[in-house]
Write a structure and sequence with these properties.
There is one protein chain. It contains 15 helices and no strands. It is 78% helix and 0% strand. Helix 9 packs antiparallel against helix 12 (184-199) and helix 10 (159-166) packs antiparallel against helix 11 (171-182). The two termini are 36 Å apart. It has 263 residues and is an all-alpha fold.
């Protein structure tokens, strides 16, 4: 093997090992400030239990709502040609690229308009309330889920659906019986990623729903509030909980054998 190749391989592996050690060091640094016994006692505190339940519930509801909208939306982007398709495709990237705090501020301003006030009047209150958490999470993950799901549908040969329609299926039946089962692993992967993203959503949530203890205190908000009061033990416990959730999501994705989908 030429010396240049050996040098390149060494540099590439060094960069990989550096990143691995860097992220492991971040997690390991938690145990410098707190003891395992302190972490265990903090895990069972009432406030952290509330944050876990609230985050799990809101992230799950937001992900289910996202699935209802994003799956057909992604299918339309993948299969249909229509005026404005490129513009819609670009707009869906906005929640991915924009700072979440900016989207949260936009949501807050929306509910200050006559239209927003009417929406709250006809449905429920969102500003500084739990439904606001779900809406903020949905706003952040909606575009992400649609883009991931689009790449999933793009990877399925449309000929399968065409054959199904020639055999008597209508468009809905071809989607439900052919496209959706073939995309099952991709859909699970996409929803797992978006669920974890919703679980870790902070910027839009704090702008729209606020940061009230034992009311709108999701796990990321709990980290923020703990930092304000210098409660290192509780902050460390919440960080480890979120690391565990992310690792679980990664294991699910690897189990499906797909790895990270294209966005």
């Amino acid at each position: 093997m030429p010396d240049e190749s050996k040098i390149f391989n060494f540099l590439a592996m060094s960069a990989l090992i550096f990143l691995f050690i860097f992220f492991i060091s971040l997690i390991a640094s938690i145990f410098i400030y707190v003891t395992p016994s302190e972490l265990v006692s903090s895990f069972f505190s009432e406030e952290i239990a509330f944050s876990i339940k609230l985050s799990m519930a809101t992230a799950t509801i937001a992900t289910l709502a996202c699935a209802i909208v994003s799956i057909p939306a992604a299918y339309a982007l993948s299969r249909f040609n229509f005026p404005g398709k490129k513009a819609i495709d670009v707009v869906l990237y906005l929640p991915i690229g924009m700072p979440p705090v900016a989207l949260g501020a936009a949501l807050l301003m929306f509910f200050g308009t006559p239209v927003g006030k009417t929406v709250e009047l006809l449905t429920t209150r969102f500003v500084f309330e739990v439904p606001g958490i779900i809406l903020a999470q949905f706003t952040i993950i909606g575009g992400l889920a649609t883009k991931i799901l689009k790449s999933t549908f793009d990877g399925i040969d449309p000929e399968y659906e065409f054959v199904a329609r020639t055999l008597g299926c209508n468009s809905f039946q071809a989607f439900y019986k052919i496209a959706l089962p073939l995309s099952k692993n991709g859909v699970i992967t996409a929803l797992t990623i978006t669920w974890v993203r919703a679980l870790g959503e902070f910027g839009a949530t704090i702008m729209l729903a606020g940061a009230t203890r034992m009311k709108t205190e999701t796990l990321p908000v709990a980290i923020f509030l703990s930092l304000q009061t210098a409660d290192v033990v509780k902050m460390s416990a919440v960080i480890l909980i979120m690391v565990g959730a992310c690792l679980l999501a990664l294991l699910i994705i690897q189990k499906l054998g797909r790895g990270w989908p294209e966005i």
